[in-house]
Amino acid sequence: MSADAKVHLDHVSHAFDGRPVLGETTLDIAKGEFVAVVGPSGCGKSTLFNIVAGLITPTHGRVLVDGTDITGTTGRMGYMLQKDLLLPWKTVLDNVLLGRSLGHRTTKADRNEALDLLDRYGLGSFTDHYPHALSGGMRQRAALIRTIVFSREVLLLDEPFGALDSQTRLLMQEWLLRVCSEIDSTILFITHDIDEALFLADRVLVMSARPGTIKGVFDVPFARPRAYEQVTSDEFVALKRQVFGLIYEESVRAAHELDPAGAP
Amino acid sequence: MSARPLPGSPAGRHARRGLAVVIPPLVVFAVIFAGWQWLVDVRHVQQFVLPSPHQVFSAAWSDRSDLLSNALYTAWEMIVGFAFGAGIGIVFATLMAHSRLASRGLYPVLITTQTIPPIAIAAPLVIWLGYGIWPKVIVTAMIVFFPVLVNAYQGLTNVDADLLSLMRSMNASEWQTFRHVRVPAASTLIFAAMKLAATYSVIGAVFGEWVGSDKGIGVYILQANSRLQTDRVYAAIFVLSLIGIVAFLLVALAEWLATPWRRRATPRRLFSKRVPARQTPSNGEHV
After folding, report:
1. How much is the pTM?
2. Cβ contact (<8 Å) for B284 and A121?
3. Nearest CB to A133: which of B4, B160, B172?
4. Which terminus of chain B, N or C, has fewer Cβ atoms within 10 Å?
5. CB-based contact, B165 to chain A, within 8 Å
6. Considering only alpha carbons, which residue of chain B is nearest residue A126?
7. Are both A102 and A167 inside the same structural domain?
8. DSSP 3-state assignment of B118?
9. Residues A33 and A57 in one domain
């Protein structure tokens, strides 16, 4: 384990009812690092995600944050899924403050912090609206702000833009890059979109078919700030080819396990 | 900015929409009453067999003070019975949603109670509790209880699992999840059940009165019927359905007040100051 690891997975593995879903995984995420995880569907990405979030206690291994064992403990990380999960009966501001309000009575400082973030990220005039009055992209931004307000040190994002149309997703990715440059979070980002992973992350992990293990690690060399034109550069395409090759192999294996006759 | 158009429209359009809701049922009622009046007039039906709407309304008017005092008594039985039935239903639903053991133990028992016809239990209730309000309250509560229980339980337990994970990830206690997530999520189903139950509660109160009472619209019907005062019977039925409609509308009003997020873009704040709508900075891009 390297000294500056913010999050450290120590020989973590997990089985549901004796059936292994996550093979032994050891991983260091440095402070401020953006790590993306890609892999075939059903490879245990979400299990890994829930273990880091503390929602699942792994069968073996430990999860450490700043050297402290937090295995199976919730409340240490910001957690965001593909669904925005905004509560329809709370205003945008109250949704953003939800995590804070669970711990203690929200103070004026909490409110101001939330209002500042909403302001800075273009939701300033919607703080008093119910979520149904917002567009999909705005709702997803509100959800990310809720995540940051709850805990900005480590953010766990599981396909946060997966349900958006491709143009909105592109804008949201660029927006996330901007947010990342402004807050000093350590991010674990799960996606099935290789472009998205390479565009956003410092490091891309490719997971194998079930039981999932880390099959390959790719450092993404592109300097920040990144612009979307880079995704068509030769360098980007070459890296994408490598990642894609590895995932394709694993996807075929995964499909073959599910349906031996159908896979190529 | 691709925000959806906000609900809440100019007063004129609001009023027109209101009329569009009110007028069609009024027309249907008018047609039914006109047909009924015509039938009685043309076929010369005897009043004790089927009184005309005109006869019913004049009977109701001439006997209005008696009808009113009986109606108030029946309405009171309904209100108390409804409060008990709905309250107990929600308490049991909460208990069952909270504990799997409770739901396994209680659900079959509670379903069994529904196989007892309320009219059958009403008679022994009178033996135990006398001619007062309580037998009617209990029969009404028994009728109200079940739909509220089933829907509240369904609503409290059938919550998006991801939402529960989110709450857990934020260290929410069971009580906080219940208050912030489960109850508002269940509100649609609970109010739907209570609307149903409010109209059913008329049946409970009248059943209870038929078995043994000296007051109430049910008693009024029995007395008028035994004297072949059919116009009064119909007048009482008319009052009962009026009570049922008012009960339904009261629950609908409660729902309207309790769930502002379904019809408004922003909450109406009566007591606290509105959050000032700040200007979006010019660099804030809109997705």
Report:
1. 0.82
2. yes
3. B4
4. N
5. yes
6. B277
7. no
8. helix
9. yes
